[in-house]
Amino acid sequence: MKVMERHFFIALKLPADLKKALHHMCQEIKEDNSFKTWVHPEDYHITLTFLGKASQDQLKQLPSLLEEVVQNEKTFELYMNHFGFFGNKERPRIFWAGVEEQVKLYNLQNQIALACEKAGFSLEKRSYSPHITLARKLLDSSTYPVDSEKWWNDYGRDSHFLAEQVVLYETHFEKQPKYHIVQSFSLQR
Known about the structure:
alpha+beta; 5-stranded antiparallel sheet; 9 strands
């Protein structure tokens, strides 16, 4: 039996009421649009930094570095207000919900990335694009190219929520939900 490699990432944990609202929106969207994979509602999150594989030494160093960052950060409001797609507009790879740009989120992400680099992780260099992945690989749609603004008008609902917890997740590819909390760090109130 092949052993799956362990992959890790750091994210903002979403509140249960937002996960429930997103799941309800996805149920409506499913009626008109097919994706190969829909994200399990418990797996909704906003990635701060993708780590990939991690050594035991990196995993040992990381919690204290993350705690150091988080203890200096206060909770903050985020506003989900649009949908988007990554990939070709004819057949998007990723369907996501987006949050309004928030300086506090970008600052937190930058500080988390610096802490991860101190722990010895090599991070992606592409620019940060905060989002909540909802589905992967559009299979069909009644209209091409897809129009994220129309989808938001048809299915979306603006939502405010409080960013309160930074979480180190481990991915279990063979399970549903597939993201397991390794450790949580609470932002200051």
